[in-house]
Amino acid sequence: TFSCPENAAFFEKLLREKRIGVVLFQWADGKRFPFAREAARCGVPVIAAIRTDPCFYERRFRGNGLRSKVKRFLRFRRQAKIYRGNAACCARTVLLSERFVPGFLKHFPRGASPRVCAIPNPAFCAEASVDFSAKKKELLFVGRMEMAVKQPQLLLRVWRKLQTRFPAWSLCLVGGAHDFDAVKKLAGTLGLERVHFEGFQNPEPYYRDASIFCMTSAYEGFPNVLVEAASFGCVPVAFDSFAAARDIISDGENGCLVPAFDLDAYAETLARPMSDDALRERLARNALAQIPEKFSPEKIGAQWEALLQGKNRAMNGLPIKNAAADGFRICWLDTGTDWLGVFSELRAGVDAWMADSARLLQTSAADGKFVRKTWKVRLDAKWGGAS
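-> structure tokens emitted (387 positions)
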């Protein structure tokens, strides 16, 4: 298995040799961290980060039939086992929104008090200014073409209700995935006009051109695309289908929230800013203004530093024991790809962090991962590791 003795021994050796101060366990909603005991023996706390809605299965299996109810029940039990297991062996659990905390706590026995806090994602691409006069009359979708979660097919059905009423407007969809062909075929079946499928692209030029950004997801953790779109002067519109949507959008003030999965309501909600230039610009300006106040890298980074350095009261002082004089290192484990890397010292600054992150991503799969088949682990020599 992944947690074989060879992997565990390598992980413990890495923690000691690199003087790792914290292990950040990403995507802790999907599986348990197998090396928590090794980290504990080294005196290294583990932070479990849940990067989605802890109750995502309630939206994914939202039907009223027996099959959906059984799926929700079984997924609840599975997630409860994962969350409880990680909370028992990790120093902290980090969610993406305070609004997710009640749902997370539902997975624990009454009276249990897992150590949990919330830190949202930052917005890295906020524009200094936006020329609203250059905006096109365009609705924009950016995301995976995935019918089960992102639900672009719902936006196509909404557009069918609007395309005749607003002949000057168009719909642009940026992104790909396994449902791309099916979604594109649906557009033809519905007889849609002025719909453009761009595939995988850098979304920034599309954010600059579009006037309104549309999200139709069944659930999200903290959707970066909503914040990114707002930072480029798009009016964000989304289903009220996940708790963190209200962290980003105040309905009628800096965007629009639509009752979950009500397509008629979505169409009428879009029609208001589409037909009113002044309203559209007011919503977009308000959305843009909140980005540096709430989601700048400096503000979000300060929350992480407070957590890691024990200055966050909710964290009760994270016990960093392996700190060096010039800061401390973080060991980052992404269970989605199963490779291990060492981030630069926090105090080296964001430029060094970005450089090290880019270098890590360029590491070949064979040199930057735990190798399951041979039960051996290797780390590329440029990171100072050993096989």
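Residues 132-294 form a domain with the Rossmann fold fold (CATH 3.40.50.2000).
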